[in-house]
Specification:
Elements (H helix, E strand, L loop, with lengths): L9 E7 L3 H12 L4 E4 L6 H4 L30 H15 L3 E2 L2 E9 L2 E8 L4 E11 L20 E2 L12 E5 L3 H12 L3 E5 L14 H9 L4 E3 L3 E5 L3 E6 L2 E6 L2 E4 L7 H7 L24 E3 L14 H4 L2 H16 L11
Parallel strand pairs: 1-2, 1-6, 2-3, 6-15, 7-14, 8-9, 8-14, 9-10
Antiparallel strand pairs: 4-5, 5-6, 11-12, 12-13
Helix pairs in contact: 1-8, 4-5
Length: 346
């Protein structure tokens, strides 16, 4: 298929990823007077959209704010729907240029002259030009696969959204952290027969303090069956095989939620030329400017932490945009002495 040209405009900054951190990067660049565009393979805040429908954040509204726009909520801890509404309003306020449902296939060129090749939802290929890049792709789009027989069956799911379709069915949840505990409880409360399997000796200590006693009590009273120090070794159409300390157990099963965590897209970063530290696969980047070892390519959000995905959240990743914008102002001023940036109006 012949390539379809994207915008002929050369943007000062192209942000890959339109989540809260990517939005913060585009906003701060725009406020500094630069032309910014965002590209995402899904919708605005795609990861948040794919969170469980009734999810509540473990934080307060003001810690999710970007662009100095207040996040008003009647709840001490906002929920998913409130957050999506808030970020939509922020995008509207700043008139952000967001190219949704465009997957970035590859990037060519170098600092000052990047060409970003994308594919839209209809398979059409497009090109965008930008002087600088920010990669803010998060980590929620790539599950940690189990690599076991049967994992490719359609009954095996790596994301949990809502309980209704699983009423009256045998459902197995794999994992021992927040997402597994939340899914197991929600499924049980809506009529599913739930079994939880975790390779550790108990639920993880980082499970939220108001959820941990709930899941532990459901297990204690036999309402949710649990196998600890155990692993799922095979999935079939009608059952799962679980290796337990007492031996292998076959369980009747209709659906499996493999909620074993997610990881950043290291392969995409490597294709850009980004290097990684040996420990925890942290990408090499300046801690002040967030520019990677590849000139003109900045990193923002959780990907800065590599495999240590529990260190950066919206609450602290939202400030990365200001760090990058400050460096952009310095770089562009050095390139064009005497030039002044003025706020861009759209």
């Amino acid at each position: 298929m012949a390539a379809k040209a994207g915008s002929s405009e050369v943007y000062d900054l192209l942000v890959i990823g339109a989540g809260p951190t990517g939005m913060a990067c585009a906003i701060e660049a725009q406020r500094a007077g630069f032309r910014a565009v965002m590209v995402d393979k899904g919708c605005l805040c795609n990861s948040l959209y794919n969170y469980p429908s009734n999810m509540t954040f473990f934080t307060t509204p003001e810690l999710l704010e970007i662009g100095d726009i207040p996040f008003s909520s009647p709840n001490q801890k906002p929920n998913r729907d409130e957050a999506l509404e808030y970020y939509r309003k922020v995008a509207e306020h700043y008139k952000l240029d967001v190219r949704q449902y465009e997957n970035v296939d590859r990037v060519e060129g170098s600092d000052g002259e990047f060409t970003i090749h994308t594919t839209d939802q209809f398979g059409r290929r497009l090109r965008h030009s930008a002087r600088k890049l920010v990669v803010a792709t998060g980590y929620y789009d790539l599950p940690n696969y189990l690599s076991i027989p049967g994992e490719d069956l359609p009954k095996v799911l790596h994301y949990y959204k809502e309980p209704h379709p699983f009423y009256g069915l045998d459902v197995l949840v794999i994992g021992g952290k927040n997402s597994a505990a939340i899914a197991a409880l929600d499924l049980w409360r809506h009529g599913a027969r739930v079994t939880l399997v975790h390779r550790g000796p108990s639920m993880h200590r980082h499970v939220k303090y108001w959820i941990l006693p709930d899941i532990e009590n459901r297990i204690k009273h036999g309402e949710i069956r649990a196998y600890f120090n155990s692993n799922v070794v095979r999935v079939t159409e009608d059952a799962v095989m679980v290796a337990t300390p007492e031996g292998e157990v076959e369980l009747a099963n209709h659906f499996v939620f493999a909620l074993t965590g997610y990881r950043p897209d290291f392969e995409f970063l490597a294709a850009l030329g980004v290097q990684f530290a040996e420990k925890d696969r942290q990408p090499v980047c300046d801690p002040v400017t967030l520019e990677s070892n590849v000139a003109g390519v900045y990193l923002a959000g959780v990907i800065v932490a590599g495999e240590r995905t529990n260190e950066i959240f919206i609450e602290n990743g939202r400030f990365h945009g200001k760090q990058i914008a400050e460096d952009l102002k310095r770089r562009f001023s050095a390139t064009n002495p005497g030039a002044q940036t003025t706020p861009v109006t759209r």
